[in-house]
Amino acid sequence: MHALGMDGGAGLSAEQQRARADVAGYLARLTDLTAFEPNPLIWEPYSYAALAVYSIPVDPGSTDTTEVQPNRVAWPWGDLATLGEAVAPEGYRRVVVTGEELKALQALLPRATQITQWESGGREYRVLFRPLLPDEAA
Question: Does the predicted model carry a pTM greater than 0.85?
Answer without folding.
Answer: no
